[in-house]
Amino acid sequence: MVMISLRADSLFVKSLDQVMQFVDRYPIIVTPHKNACRDFWVRHFQLKVGFDSSWFVWLHSADGSLSLAFMTPDHPSAPPGPEVFSGRGMCFELQVEDAVAAHAAFVESGGRASYPLTDEPFGQRRFGFADPAGLWVDVVQQTEPVAGFWDRYMTAGDTAAA
Question: Which of 117, 128, 69 is nearest to 94 (CA)?
Answer without folding.
Answer: 128
